[in-house]
Amino acid sequence: MTDLADLEWRDGGVPVSTRFEDPYYSLEDGLAETRHVFLAGNGLPERFCDGFHVGELGFGTGLNLLASIAAWRAAGIGGVLRFTSFEAYPMGAEDMIRAQAGFPELAGIADTLAAHWRRGAQVITLPELEFRLILGDARETLPAWQGCADAWFLDGFSPAKNPALWEDGLMGEVAAHTAPYGTAATYTAAGFVRRGLAAAGFEVERIPGYGRKRHMTRARKGTR
Ligand SMILES: C[S@@+](CC[C@H](N)C(=O)[O-])C[C@H]1O[C@@H](n2cnc3c(N)ncnc32)[C@H](O)[C@@H]1O
Does 77 map to a domain? Predict the structure, then answer.
């Protein structure tokens, strides 16, 4: 039985996890943060190509998925975007829909997906999308995953609030499930996260962060 997310709505409509005491996305502008950290941080949309596979630790509200679909459509790539997200404490459909409504730019995509959230979908297939939500603790589900991502969105709340999702062992699993020359990006520049990614075989860089965060992390894998 999966535990659902425990959350409150604060500061004019941002969902905050009461289990982890951390907001699901930036209080400043969640969509701009997603574009800066996860899309640009992974060299997207420039690297998009048919079959490109995004992996995500922490699905939350689905904002990163919606922003990725919007970027994919705007880039006019054609073909299919694959997106696999790992989530231990899924939000209820109405909470997801409420959070997504905070981003009017994404309303068309949010409307398309709303019926899927209401039926509790874990697999969504659209003409341009193959989405899969893998429920459970990522420390258990990622090692068992047969897939490989071209870009990882590491979005598991702040490492101080949720160190479990940033453990060295999990960073090793991320690397093991990354395609050659694949990348990972995250808003944190915490030293232990950067060291964990480096120990897993990524080349790790600290680059300017979003909003009040001075730095974020971008990682790139070599051929293996
Ligand atoms: C910052 S939120 C993700 C925000 C999200 N990407 C979005 O677009 O809204 C972090 C997520 O990580 C999930 N999480 C926390 N610990 C986890 C674990 N051990 N395994 C999988 N997911 C976890 C939380 O339930 C939460 O949904």
Answer: yes
Provide the token pair at 115: 């019926």
Q: How far is residue 155's CA from residue 4's CA, in Å, rounded to a whole number?
A: 18
16 part of a folded domain: no
Give, for ligand 1, the residue of 57, 113, 170, 213 to mutate: max count of ligand atoms closer than 8 Å to Cβ: 57
Q: How many angstroms is it from 7 CA to the middle of ligand 1?
A: 12
Determine contact, residues 118/110, Cβ cutoff 8 Å.
no
Q: Report the alpha-carbon distance of residue 208 to residue 102 in Å, rounded.
A: 26
Angstrom distance (rounded) from CA 95 to CA 2: 17
pLDDT in tens, 155-192: 999 999 999 999 999 999 999 999 999 999 999 999 99
Domain region containing 79: 29-221
Q: Does the residue 81 lie in any domain?
A: yes
Is 220 within 8 Å of 197 (Cβ atoms)?
A: no
Q: Output the pLDDT for position 1.
A: 66
Question: Closest Cα to atom 12, ligand 1: which residue?
Answer: 58
Domain count, the chain: 1
Task: Output the domain CATH number for residue 114.
Answer: 3.40.50.150
Q: Is residue 98 part of a domain?
A: yes
Mutate which of 31, 37, 100, 162 for ligand 1? The one with the most ligand atoms within 8 Å of its CB, which is 162
C-alpha 137 – ligand 1 centre gap (Å): 10
pLDDT in tens, 20-62: 999 999 888 999 999 999 999 999 999 999 999 999 999 999 9
- Give the number of the atom of ligand 1 that is nearest the alpha carbon of residue 60: 27
The finding on whether 149 has its CB within 6 A of some atom of ligand 1 is no
Q: What is the pTM of this model?
A: 0.98
